[in-house]
Amino acid sequence: MRISECGLRSVEFELSCCAMIRWLDFLREAGFSIAMSLMDRITVEPGKCGERPCIRGLRIRVKDILEMLADSATPAEILQDFPDLEAEDIKAALLYAASGSDHLVVKAA
What is the DSSP letter of 24? Predict the structure, then answer.
């Protein structure tokens, strides 16, 4: 049984967010400036987009960018459709997804 099937999706999300925050803190402390300058573009603000990760405080969620890329949209098409975005924002969304995929997954028994 997958976590989302047993109603624990929010627990998985919270665990992955906590892991992400610890990972970002580690990267900052270790001095990874290039990755961190991209990751600084990812914001989570109370009351905005359900407190989901967004790009630079805009109401454009990281998830939306990733879904567009998965649906075969090119970065150029995304930038054309969302003029407030920059190419670095798309790289930041990909970096965020990549770093979020490398964490321990807790499964319900």
Answer: H
pLDDT digits 0-9 by tens, 87-99: 999 999 998 888 8
The stretches of 31-102 forming alpha helices (DSSP H) are 33-39, 62-70, 75-81, 87-100
55, 42 contact by CB (below 8 A)? yes
DSSP conformation class of 4? G
The whole-model pTM stands at 0.63
Quick one: pLDDT band at residue 36, thresholds 50, 70, 90?
low
Within its chain, how far is the Cα of 40 from the centroid? 11
- What distance in Å separates the CA atoms of residue 53 and residue 50, rounded to the nearest whole number? 9
The 10 Å Cβ neighbour count of residue 109 is 3
